[in-house]
Amino acid sequence: MATGSSDHHRTNTGVGAWVIAALSAVALMFVACGIGFGEEPKETELLKEITIEEPVIAGQAVTILLDYAQQYPVRVEVKCDLLSVNDLPTNTPLATRTVSPLALRRTPEPTLPNIPRVRPTPKRKVLEILGTTLQPNEEGGPTGTATPELGTIERRFLAPEPGDYVVWCYTPVDQNNAIFQELTILPP
Q1: What percent of the chain is modeled with pLDDT above 70?
Q2: Burial class (CB in 10 A: 0-12, 13-18, 19+), 163
Q3: Neighbouring-strand partners of residue 83
Q4: How many angstroms separate the CA atoms of 40 and 141, rounded?
Q5: Considering the entire predicted model, what is its pTM?
Q6: Sheet with 47-52, side-by-side order of all strands
Q7: What is the bridge-based pairing of β-strands 56-57 and 174-186?
Q8: Which of 159, 174, 163 lies closest to 45 in space, CA to CA?
Q9: Closest Cα to residue 88, out of 52, 121, 130?
Q10: d(CA 104, CA 101)
Q11: In the chain, where are the structural domains located?
């Protein structure tokens, strides 16, 4: 009996070692392919850094600086939005009036439903801070071969009500090409 248990134990050890080796190989593959499990990247090939002058007080002017490196031989549209970290309040539709029993005896008139207006903005968007187009880099080309034209865009806006926000800068053509900076707006 002891021999059978020992053989069974060796089989499990072999399977365990195989699983560990397989997981190690997969983890190494992710690292080699540039896939990480840490925090979000601080910059992209185009958008480099967002700088915000602090402290930010509600109702006062805020200045943001967006550093970029334009290496493409085409125009590139860039946008920055102020997003709320918390859910924005949803307006409740107005109540419809109550119909009296006498009115039900007459031919009813159709009542149009009160449908809230659809907002064309992302759910958490509070404000569009920046919308501009970077001019083409005349000597631009593929990533890594072109010398990028470095630049900084400065924008000012009024800080909304106190709370936690994110400044999100991106290219609308490829929203994966995005960077963000957390921002806390203090009460006046």
Answers
A1: 58
A2: middle
A3: 125, 166
A4: 26
A5: 0.60
A6: 47-52, 61-70, 149-158
A7: parallel
A8: 174
A9: 121
A10: 5
A11: 1-28, 43-88+119-188
Handedness of CA 15, 17, 19, 21 (dihedral sign): negative
| 105's tokens | 């005896």
C-alpha 122/C-alpha 109 separation (Å) is: 37
Contacts of 86 (CB under 8 A, 6+ apart): 163, 164
- pLDDT 10s digits, 13-49: 555 555 555 545 544 444 443 333 344 457 888 999 9
Contact 178, 170 (CB under 8 A): yes
Non-local CB neighbours of 183 within 8 Å, separated by 6+ positions: 52, 56, 82, 164, 165, 166, 167
**Start-to-end C-alpha separation, the chain:** 79
Tell me the torsion sign for CA atoms 143, 146, 147, 150.
Answer: negative
CA distance 141 to 25: 35
Inter-CA distances, 55 with 20, 51, 58, 69, Å? 49, 12, 10, 27
CATH topology of domain 43-88+119-188: Immunoglobulin-like (2.60.40)
Is residue 136 within 8 A of residue 74, CB to CB? The reply is yes
* Residue in the structure block whose two tokens are 């002891």: 2
